[in-house]
Design a protein that fits this description.
- The protein is of the alpha/beta class and about 625 residues long.
- The strands form seven sheets. Strands 2, 3, 4, 5, 6, 7, 8 and 9 form an eight-stranded mixed sheet that branches.
Length: about 625
């Protein structure tokens, strides 16, 4: 049998056969005892190249038509066009400077009576609970409507979901507890748990969902809404979610496995969360079965630091770096590891309630504001001043014009009736800023407008955000609004109160907290190495947009994150969805905060008046 491979060169070019096995116009010797004859192919030869048109002699032309070896290279003339001078190619966009875009880890909840475009990126309760794979749900909150909660599970599986509701109504005769017991009795798969409440004036104010699914994943959701219809309909609230958490591999469950416990890492978040949950079992078993199950899951993909409060007395001066700190001590210790940008900055405290803080500003400034002013030691060595504080809180006019009118003010509180409360208003007044910056009265700060799309949706969300405000610094020279650059952001259930954050330390070095709270702290370095990540405020969308600016040589077209200089371009850009509009608008001298216990006779947008509590 003869096997020939004709004209092998063409097969080599096409990549069909290995180059070292062939020589042009030869045959392959496939067997040692077989002689192979040259093979003449019947296949058409590849078309010959077009004859070059030139002024060569006829002898040259004749030679081209002969059967000379065409594998021999001939000298060719250089084309005239290749001798002409040409312009250099245009400067290419440096791809290495194009940042990675990360949508906001904080999302807003949907608003029913706003247009669809105003709900871009927003999430509903059904988005969180409507998955038919949910097998078990632990729901932590202050106010609960069991019927409302159950309606948002998948209709085909809601009767199969094991639902646990943790509340703080410890008095058996409490009307809220009686209503909960009445509603839950209609569902065979709902179990109520009363949280340990050692402080008389404390509340179970945490807002969190812990979900287990049939696909062996778990999820933690921290948010700011009560589990009632009003909070999830026309009021502004915020949500932070972990990714779907897979089960740990068997070898990773060993206690001998060393994990990274750095603040902001997934393992540290898990440890702090489990410490928080164990606190519920101080007097009786509540969360132990769920904790034992949650321990089996891998939190390595989680980005963020847990900042929470548990009621009781806590030692302040414990140097153990792995210990979980609570209340203002927790946020203070966390911020000590977070670098901030040099120059001027501002912390916007946006809350839905301001409790009675005292006749002087001692607790506010020396305890809470001091804790929120903390930063890493490297930042304090730079030209970094203490931040200015502003408090975002709605006025009666803003509540009156909100989508639900005065009805939305039932969840927003500040008292001014007593003498101590009146004094508190005096030192709070210079700090107060409107929720919506489109009011007729008040002083609007300078800067381009950024519309949050939530001016008419009254706030129940709580955010604490540190903005970098030095417009003259080179690090913000390419930002349209300096306040867009963010050093850190906190989404939490904690309002401005001593019950939530804790009292000033006592003589024994103890911190006393009255309420349960939970939140998550985020900062740029969690999303990139060193200073390679930037965090910016976004409005009406969750996705930040990198700004085109000039590079070091004055060329256009370099993608740059707001907050970065030409010599330090960000490789990662993280958005933070801000619920209020910028620039902020300060209260006018004649304006005051919304007070739910006061009465308002001017009709709201629904034609209603408010008689007060």
């Amino acid at each position: 049998m003869h096997i020939f491979v004709p004209n092998c060169t063409q097969y080599i070019v096409r990549g069909v056969l290995p180059l070292q096995a062939f020589r042009p116009q030869t045959c392959l010797q496939l067997h040692a005892h077989t002689t192979y004859r040259p093979y003449v192919s019947n296949m058409a030869e590849p078309p010959s190249k077009r004859r070059r048109l030139s002024s060569t002699s006829s002898e040259d032309s004749t030679n081209e038509d002969t059967n000379e070896d065409h594998t021999m290279k001939k000298p060719r003339k250089t084309l005239a066009s290749l001798s002409n001078p040409i312009s250099p190619p245009g400067r290419r966009r440096p791809h290495e400077h194009k940042p990675i875009i990360i949508p906001s880890p904080i999302q807003l909840t949907t608003i029913r009576d706003l247009p669809e475009e105003s709900n871009a990126g927003a999430v509903s309760l059904h988005d969180l609970l409507g998955d038919p794979l949910i097998a078990e749900c632990w729901e932590f909150n202050y106010l609960h409507d069991v019927d409302f909660l159950m309606r948002h599970f998948d209709e085909d599986t809601r009767s199969l979901v094991k639902v646990h509701i943790i509340h703080g109504f410890w008095k058996r005769e409490d009307s809220n507890r009686l209503l909960l017991e009445q509603q839950s009795s209609l569902y065979g798969n709902v179990t109520l748990h009363s949280a340990f409440m050692p402080e008389m004036f404390g509340t179970h104010h945490s807002k969190m969902l812990i979900l287990f699914r049939h696909d062996d994943t778990a999820q933690v959701i921290i948010h700011t809404a009560n589990m009632i219809s009003k909070d999830w309909t026309n009021m502004t609230n915020g949500v932070w979610q972990t990714p779907r958490l897979p089960l740990l591999k068997s070898q990773e469950r060993s206690p001998d496995v060393v994990t990274d416990m750095k603040l902001g890492s997934g393992p540290r978040f898990k440890a702090d969360l489990l410490n928080y949950l164990w606190a519920y079992d101080t007097r009786r078993t509540i969360c132990k079965p769920m904790i034992k199950e949650l321990e089996k899951y891998d939190f390595s993909a989680v980005v963020g630091a847990l900042v929470a409060s548990i009621p009781g007395k806590h030692e302040l001066y414990d140097d153990d770096p792995d210990k979980t700190h609570w209340g203002w001590s927790g946020i203070k210790n966390a911020l000590r590891s977070i670098p901030v940008q040099p120059g001027k900055s501002e912390v916007a405290v946006q809350i839905s309630s301001i409790a009675t803080l005292g006749g002087t500003d001692t607790w506010l400034k020396r305890t809470l504001f001091t804790a929120l002013s903390s930063s890493s030691s490297s930042s304090t060595k730079e030209n970094t001043s203490k931040p200015e504080f502003k408090v975002v809180f709605p006025t009666p006019d803003e509540i009156r014009r909100s989508l639900d009118g005065y009805g939305s003010g039932g969840s927003i509180h500040m008292k001014t009736q007593s003498a101590a409360q009146a004094k508190q208003l005096q030192y709070m007044k210079p700090l107060l800023q409107h929720w919506a910056n489109d009011c007729e009265m008040g002083t609007l700060e300078e800067g381009p407008p950024h519309n949050s799309g939530r001016n008419r949706a009254a706030p129940h969300i709580k955010t604490y955000i540190r903005y970098h405000t030095s417009s003259s610094s080179s690090s913000t020279s390419n930002i349209s609004s300096p306040k867009q650059s963010i050093d850190w952001a906190l989404l939490t259930s904690a309002n401005m109160s001593r019950q939530a954050w804790g009292e000033a330390p006592n003589g024994a070095g103890q911190l006393r907290i009255a309420s349960w709270e939970v939140g998550v702290l985020l900062w740029p370095a969690l999303f990139g190495d060193g200073d390679s990540a930037g965090m910016v405020a976004v409005f009406g969308t969750d996705v930040p947009e990198a700004k085109e600016d000039e590079d070091d040589d004055g060329e256009k077209g370099v993608d740059r994150a707001p907050g970065s200089s030409s010599s330090s371009r960000r490789r990662t850009l993280v958005g933070i969805r801000v619920p209020y509009s910028l620039p902020l608008q300060k209260y006018a001298d004649t304006e005051g905060p919304w007070v739910a216990t006061a009465s308002y006779t001017e009709p709201d947008c629904l034609g209603q008046v408010w008689g007060g509590y």
